[in-house]
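seq as requested:
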Amino acid sequence: MILCDAGVLLCLVDRTQPQHNAYKIAVIRLAKPLVTTWSCLTEAMYLALHRGGWQMQKQLGQLLLDKLLTVYEIQESDYSRLLALMEQYRDRPMDLADATLVLTAEKTGYRQILTLDSDFLFYRIGDQDSFEIISV
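struct tokens:
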């Protein structure tokens, strides 16, 4: 499984994005399900609404229906870790969506990530392991 950030989700459905085709090809080539969080999907849906309206949001939703994208559920017991991560990386600053991806990596052991966000070069999984950013 490969973690997927909001920017890449938007890029997959927004044909005006410069890397749209590259990410579509990469996702097909990787042939692995993408994992995101509700925070990332919400961010992508918001951006999609403002870029392409309901049709672009529908394309994002279709990724879920086609099982190309799955959502990792954050538990209430994880809230304190999310806030600790956001405090730890407040100089970047880390937003909630990024914190949920770091937490997901900690909980699942997934290290590979599709992201447009260079902050994942600095974030650490369990405060020690780095992410493996998939180059596209």
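Strands lie at 2-4, 34-37, 69-72, 112-114, 124-125, 129-130, 132-133.
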